[in-house]
Specification:
The protein has 412 residues and is an alpha/beta fold. It folds into three domains: 215 residues, Rossmann fold; 93 residues, Rossmann fold, CATH 3.40.50.1100; 71 residues, 2-Layer Sandwich (Alpha-Beta Plaits), CATH 3.30.70.260. Helix content is 43%, strand content 18%. It has a six-stranded mixed beta sheet with strand order 1-2-10-7-8-9, sandwiched between helices. A four-stranded parallel beta sheet has the order 5-4-3-6, with helices on both faces. Strand 4, helix 6 and strand 5 form a beta-alpha-beta unit. The longest helix is centred in the middle third of the chain and has 15 residues. The two termini are 41 Å apart. The relative contact order is 0.12. The C terminus is likely disordered.
Length: 412
């Protein structure tokens, strides 16, 4: 098992190899929730996530063996980069096995830190098994979460939180394999026994929730999720007893809630968080976390390694759900001034035109008419409704979309 002294020793050991990440207060989130909300920004950690903590502790504890044979690990992204950075800093060779679906950006980032990347396995568990088999040649295998020395390194997050904010009542932590929350819970509960630790998972892969209900570690079906960093089908064997004994509750968030949390962090705090990093905020905002008014709550924003293309789609989808992007089509007479009159109506209402598609010869449209599709940016559902009402009054026919009024759903 991992102890507070193990975590404190890890903190001293890795101090020169990591960044002491900031803990920032959020007035906006505090007003919305009635609590005092702080964000622990592991997005600003080396390699963009907390993973370098555990990896550095493991490498430094076995430095002679690592120098002789190198290290090997398996990861879908953040652990890969954390191990690569830890190995690079120690001057040892690193090999990373990544599942075949790992993003190209994370593959290239891992290579940029000097590691060899091997693509193998349809799941993270298959990639881990492959890496473990390859470690028989003497390379040190660094498990992404089910390793006491890795867990001790991750627990240093709690040391920093409680040193800077000793009055913390609750820490909300993303949960994949469970290494991060196991380390944080061990340290935090030893230092401050009355503190509450809450885990947050993607509803698409509720491995820890299922394990708690079952009374033991069981595999779940890992559905696709934008929180790919915590898409782990089975909770770690070392982490589970700590979660069972020290964590008050494990809550979940949907894909839509996670996407909205990513946008909220970006717009209100200028923080770029990956899906896994935004899950604590998503779970807090959906009402799943239990807390007393005025509580001091720290959300561990565990990483910021999100692909640019995916981030763009997440933002657009969230803005559509919030009524801040509206796509609609109208049929106009094909004559001079028709489009200008349509645009004038939207302009008077303050709608910002993002895109116009002027389609001649559209199926089902009379030859003397044209189909025009507009994409507008609005301030939200009330503003959108005002624009739509003005268009209807002006004589334009705009159908509603079943299940999501006035908007065109977007799919990741």
């Amino acid at each position: 098992m991992v102890s507070l002294s193990d975590i404190q020793a890890a903190g001293r050991r890795i101090e020169a190899h990591i960044i002491r990440t900031p803990l920032i207060y959020s007035p906006v989130l505090s007003r919305r929730t009635g609590a005092r909300i702080y964000l622990k920004l592991e997005t600003l950690q080396r390699a963009g996530s907390f993973k370098v903590r555990g990896a550095s502790n493991k490498v430094l504890l076995h430095l002679d063996a690592c120098r002789a044979h190198g290290v090997i690990a398996a990861s879908a992204g953040n652990h890969a980069q954390g191990v690569a950075v830890a190995a690079q800093g120690a001057g040892v060779k690193a090999t990373i096995v990544m599942p075949v679906w790992a993003s190209i950006a994370k593959q290239e980032a891992t290579r940029a830190y000097g590691a060899e990347v091997i693509l193998s396995g349809q799941t993270l568990e298959e990639a881990v098994a492959d890496a473990h088999a390859r470690s028989r040649d003497g390379r040190l295998f660094i498990h992404p979460y089910d390793d006491a020395e890795v867990i001790a390194g991750q627990g240093t997050v709690a040391l920093e939180i409680l040193h800077e904010l000793p009055e913390t009542d609750i820490i909300v932590v993303p949960v994949g394999g469970g290494g991060l929350i196991a380390g944080i819970a061990t340290a935090a509960r030893a230092i401050q026994p009355g503190i509450t630790i809450i885990g947050a998972q993607a509803a698409a892969c509720p491995s820890a929730v299922t394990a708690l209900h079952a009374g033991g570690v069981v595999p779940v079906t890992a559905e696709k999720t934008i929180a790919d960093g915590i898409r782990v089908a089975q909770t770690g064997l070392l982490a589970f007893p700590i979660i069972r004994d020290e964590v008050v509750q494990i809550v979940t968030a949907t894909e839509e809630e996670i996407g909205d949390a990513i946008l909220l962090l970006l717009e209100r705090k200028h923080v770029i968080a990956e899906g896994a990093g935004a899950v604590p905020l998503a779970a807090l905002m959906n009402g799943s976390c239990t807390f007393a008014p005025g509580s001091t709550i720290v959300l561990v924003i565990s990483g910021g390694n999100v692909d640019s293309a995916l981030l763009f789609r997440i933002i657009r989808q969230s803005m559509v759900r919030q009524g801040r992007i509206w796509r609609f089509s109208v049929i106009l007479d094909d004559q001079p001034g028709a489009l200008a009159r349509l645009l004038a109506v939207t302009s008077r209402q303050g709608g910002n035109i993002l895109h116009i598609d002027h389609e001649e010869g559209a199926s089902g449209v009379p030859v003397q008419m044209i189909k025009v599709s507009l994409e507008l940016e609005t301030r939200g559902w009330e503003h959108l409704s005002n624009i739509r009402e003005a268009l209807l009054v002006a004589g334009y026919q705009i159908p509603e979309k079943k299940g999501q009024p006035y908007s065109q759903p977007m799919v990741l």
